[in-house]
Every structure is written in C-alpha cells, then in structure tokens.
C-alpha cells in the first residue's frame, strides 16, 4: 500500500459528460457499505437484514458505476432467518476484504442461533463458503485486517478488538477496549482498521445512524494502538445542516490504482416536511479523500459530485421488464427471511413466476414474497397477474406493520394499507376473468411546493387497462412507509406476493 500523499492536482475527467457523477452510487436500501480493490476491480458488500438471499455483492471498475454480481449468502445452509427474526434483525454490517488470494467476508447475523460468521470465496460472485462460526467474537459490525506478521485482528462495535484465527474461527485471547470516539457520543460502531504509511488508522462511526451520524478517525503505531484522535473529528457529518443528504456515516476507505483515496459511506435522502422522511432506506454514497498532515480529509458530499480522474466504466442498465424466462432469479430479487423451493418456481408455467402462499398476508413473517429494492424517489411498477388459483398481487413493504398492497383474487381487486395497528381495506372493485395488470405509481413530493407537513411521496395503486389507462383505486401518503414512522434500519422493497393458494406473474416492470 502506498505512503500517504498530500493533495494532488486533479486530472482530466474526459468522458464524464458534464464532469460529474450522481450520488448515491448504489441507490435504495444498500446500507453499511464495505469496499475492497483487487487490481483495477472494486467490490462492495452491504447489509441485508431480514431479507434472503443476504449480503448483495457489487462490482465496479470506476467506483461510480456498480453492478450486482451476486449475494454472498444465497443458500439456506449459509443464512438462517427463522420467522421469529424481527424486521431489521438478521444480517448486519459486513466487512469485505481481499487477502492472500481470496475474498473474506465477516458479518453478524442478529437472529436466533446467529452470531458472527466468516465466509471466503475465490470469486466474489460466488459461490461463497459455508459459514465459519466465531463464538469467541461478540458484538456487531466485525472488521478484519492482517498485520505485517500475518496476524489477523477483528474489531467490533463498542469498539473492542481481539486477535483471531480466521481458519479455525477461534479468538486468540480476550477482547480489549480500543479508542471509542468522542467521549459521551452514542453508538461507537462500524470500525475499520487500515495500515496506511507509517500509521494504523481506526475509522469508526458514532452518534447513531440517524441525523446525528458521523465518521471519526484515530491513528496509532500498531493495530492495537494506542490511538490518538484526529483533531478535526468528525471528519464527516451532516448533522445540524439542511443538506439534501443526511445521516452520513458508517464508512470504508479504498485506494485507487492512481494513489487517490475514496470513501464509501451510508446516507439518506429525506423528503417532504418536518422532520423529513426517508423511504428508500440508507444508501451508498461516494466521496474523495485527501490527506493533510497525515489525516484523511473528506470532500464535500453533494448529489452531483466532481468526477474521478479516470474514464467512466459504465455497466449494463438493468432492463425495465423481467419476463421470468430464466431458471434462476436475478440476484436483485429478495424474499422475506427465506425462499423455500416449494414456494416459488419459474418452470411450473414456463415464462411465469409462480408463487405459492405460506403466510396469509404481508402481516406474517413467513409471507411468500419476491421483491426488489425501490431505488428511485419516483417510479412505476406493473405486473401481469393470474390469481385464478389464489390471492396475491403487488406490495410495497417496509416491515410487517407497514406495507401497502393491491391484491387480486375471487373476482375482486382490493387495496390494503397497513400502518402500525391500523389495517383498513381502502378500496375494492370487481375484476374481469383472466390475468390483469396491477400497477403502483410512486410520485415524490416537489421541493418547490414544500410545507411543514408535506408527505415525502404519494403512492397510487390500481389496475391498468390494455390501452394503458390507469384506474387508480387508492392514493396513499408515503410517510407511513418511511423509517421515521416505522423505525428500523431498512428501506422499501417492492414486489410480488401470494397470500393464499397459487398466484402467477407473467412479467414485472420497474421504471
């Protein structure tokens, strides 16, 4: 790894159009990013909480354009999320590293029978190994780093540290307490250790993952310290500001091939009135890092960022429509806690996704659901649904107590809105025989029309006729599907579900 350098002159940004890129770089519910580089390739992992498969893995060649190449935990033997796992439980804060010719992923499963687990792979797209359980390592947000002698150190939220044997999964001694950030600050977490130049740097988050979130750093002569805090801490925070990107924290550093440094971190984009509601979850953002007097300095974080000093390497844009013609679902599709083989099929009726009900509604922790993260403030979702053998349709889910859905079955279409203890049927209408198009439009509020209680967005749920006419059955306030109302750590996931019997989907559009 190269020695820390002072600020360098920016290079040519040709090929980036107007010379900027858009933040976030991984939109939608993709929090707690961890990044590593191998040659000219970057790889990134994020938290997935109660969704299966777990830990989405992304690849990029320019740090800006990311393509999901898999999920690290894509087999039931790797990830158990029983029905009693609460929403916003499950898989927390992975650390992804490359060492000695292989990829290493350490993560916490906050579920019954879970704990800290270590996985390895030679290809980050998978397959990843079976879990190596680490009963001697407690806490969450585990980090991995190897020193010059090849010893492996694991640091966790708190901030505590213990040497481990990464092959056996055993702790080599008792955990010790390291520097834990600003005295009195809540939730010192997300530790990452780096050897950069003459120092070991300890990067942490503090202040909680809400509006007080921040990134702080300390440095010392060895991986176990002692550490001195940066005099300019926090090196990143948006607390107390009116910036459009809030809750900035939980960061990871990476060095580019040209010697420049960059930081990935989570943030949110609240909308509407006071206090501001974020509905997409915590997303992954990118900012440049320079070094002054041996300390990292994070560049300004805005929605339109100055492009990196290398040509862009775009990735394929996902198609609007999934026709379910493949034998396997794309890795962007996730389910709630599990996806038993007997509950879904893409071959029972070729070209259709078949879902068989388990739980009776989105209220149930074992509902049969296949969805994707909402990644845009405004979007349109449509599906052609055949509910002749059951009940099901389209849903926007935050958790069991906060979801909106439009459901077909028994010759009717109905809209249900769950918000906490309330679960009214908002609208119904007769449905013609045969498959029908269900549709949900999400329309973000306009900042030009702000008022103190303005909703972040409005969701329109209804049926689309063959000619494209949208028969809107319900118009619902989006704030009740936000983290500020529901609580927790996730964001919206939009998809298909079966509440009873068998429901089939010919295609699904997201645009």
TrEMBL record:
Gene Ontology MF term list: hydrolase activity
Short name of one Pfam family: GH43_C2
Keyword terms: Glycosidase, Hydrolase
SUPFAM superfamilies in alphabetical order: Arabinanase/levansucrase/invertase (SSF75005), Concanavalin A-like lectins/glucanases (SSF49899)
Recorded superkingdom: Bacteria
Beta-xylosidase C-terminal Concanavalin A-like domain: residues covered: 321-511
Similarity comment: family membership: Belongs to the glycosyl hydrolase 43 family.
Protein name: Glycoside hydrolase family 43 protein
Organism of derivation: Phytohabitans kaempferiae
Lineage of source species: Bacteria, Bacillati, Actinomycetota, Actinomycetes, Micromonosporales
